[in-house]
Design brief:
Strand content: 5-15%
CATH superfamily: Glycosidases
Order of helices and strands: HEHEHHEHEHEEHEHHHEHHHEHEHH
Number of strands: 10
CATH class: Alpha Beta
Shape: globular
Radius of gyration: 21 Å
Helix content: 25-40%
CATH architecture: Alpha-Beta Barrel
Structural class: alpha/beta
Number of helices: 16
Largest sheet: 8 strands, parallel, barrel
Number of domains: 1
């Protein structure tokens, strides 16, 4: 554990966060070492802003993630549920009135049932399968994109904007960046989710998107339209597939700006994406391979795409959703340990340092964000369970509090968001507000 350090005022931490976000429109740079920063802002995920919890909140914990639900705000097309909208406004207002800044989850991962019937809403993989997770095509379908943009306008109208320090925007059913993962089809590491009419042939294609550079080509096939497929062809296809995620987020961010929101846009990023050496190997066999965690099929190329995100979405913030996940536990046990961010990580990432395979997800993603000039926030995975990122070999929730706070500091994050508020106040994971307070005062 790091030696004790003086605790800084939370207001200063938030000021640092907002100042960092304001500088995001500048050209990306590759810093040689993290710039000195104040302590991160401290917060909680899935906050209810309940009066009794606000009254008992941990001193210095002044950020709350409040999750909205698209299916509740707009249960019928074009119809805002006034009761839900008022409840959401009241929730945000309670936090703001108590001096707690709010990061609002957009709720795009909870589409109403009527959205599934829109043209092109079904996602299809190369075998014609549709996801078993209920995912809809928020990336390529023009009809779904229009509905999502309308939802964001309703959301912005429903809440007080002056209390928000972020709105989260993702593309997956987990609310994170990415195409559906291997669990969506039951065929592990097998599905590429870009084989509907919109992505392949431009029929009903969302604004800002482009159709496949090789229509009907399936990764792994050695020929296309009578000619051999080269590694350059495969790289171009993957760049299109991965870049579509950034284009979708940029389109949602544009809608937020048009609706009057001017604050940071948080983009939750799971895992570590595809390492440059792994992507090189994959395109060398024309994508006829898989990468751990399904990153290749999910289209997660943080090294390649975060600079594009920085350029396309001024005010973007990368949310590392697995701070102190199981990969950090394993990296911490190595000799020497590899779990901590270090000066020079951004350069090592693109230079293909031999140790990269030992780096945990958080270290890779933070380095990729630093290389792109993007600020980062982070949250721990939470206890093992079907609705969290915790797995059997994760740290306990108590250890996630301790290590998550430590990693937030050493990695230079702008904020640490503890997952989840219920864990603090219900005792379901064996942690208490005092555990969080002790960790941030170390």
């Amino acid at each position: 554990m790091r030696s004790a350090r003086r605790r800084r005022a939370p207001a200063r931490s938030l000021a640092v966060l907002l100042a960092l976000v304001a500088s995001c429109g500048a050209a990306p740079t590759a810093p040689t070492a993290p710039a000195p920063r104040a302590d991160p802002a401290w917060g909680v995920v899935d906050s209810t802003c309940a009066p009794e919890r606000l009254a008992a909140r941990v001193p210095g914990v002044d950020v709350a993630v409040v999750e909205a639900h698209w299916d509740r705000l707009e249960p019928q097309p074009g119809v805002t549920d006034p009761g839900y909208a008022e409840g959401l406004r009241a929730t945000v207002t309670r936090c703001v009135d108590a001096g707690v800044r709010v990061v609002l989850g957009s709720g795009l991962q909870y589409p109403p049932g009527w959205v599934r019937a829109l043209p092109g809403a079904e996602i299809r993989d190369q075998a014609g399968r549709t996801p078993t997770t209920g995912a809809v095509d928020t990336v390529f379908s023009a009809a779904v994109a229009a509905a999502a943009d309308d939802h964001l306008r309703r959301l912005v109208a429903a809440v007080p904007l002056d209390g928000l320090v972020g709105i989260r925007v993702g593309t997956s059913t987990a609310g994170e960046l990415g195409h559906p993962g291997p669990e969506a089809s039951g065929a592990a590491f097998d599905s590429w989710w870009a084989f509907g009419d919109a992505p392949q042939h431009g029929v009903g294609l969302a604004p800002g998107q482009v159709s496949s550079p090789m229509p009907d080509w399936v990764p792994g096939q050695r020929t296309w339209q009578g000619r051999a497929v080269t590694p350059d062809d495969a790289r171009g296809w993957f760049t299109w597939y991965s870049g579509a995620l950034v284009r979708a987020v940029a389109d949602r961010a544009r809608s937020l700006r048009e609706a009057g929101y001017r604050g940071p846009v948080h983009v939750p990023a799971a895992g570590r994406g595809v390492l440059p050496a792994d992507l090189d190997a994959a395109v060398g066999v024309v994508l006829d391979t898989a990468v751990r965690d399904g990153a290749l099929r999910r289209g997660l190329d943080y090294v390649g795409d975060l600079p594009a995100l920085a350029a396309a979405v001024p005010g973007a913030v990368v949310d590392v959703t697995g701070l102190d996940d199981a990969t950090a536990v394993r990296a911490r046990r190595l000799d020497p340990p590899q779990d901590r961010c270090a000066p020079g990580d951004a350069e090592a990432l693109v230079a293909g340092a031999p140790s990269l395979d030992d780096w945990p997800n958080q270290r890779v993603t933070v380095a990729a964000a630093a290389r792109a000039g993007l600020p980062t926030v982070g949250e721990n995975p939470g206890p093992p369970g079907p609705t969290t990122g915790g797995v059997a070999d994760s740290d306990s929730e108590a250890d996630q509090v301790r290590y998550g706070v430590e990693y937030a500091r050493v990695c230079g994050l702008s904020a640490f968001l503890l997952a989840f508020e219920d864990d603090l106040y219900t005792g379901r994971s064996g942690i208490t507000p005092d555990d969080y307070l002790t960790a941030i005062r170390r």
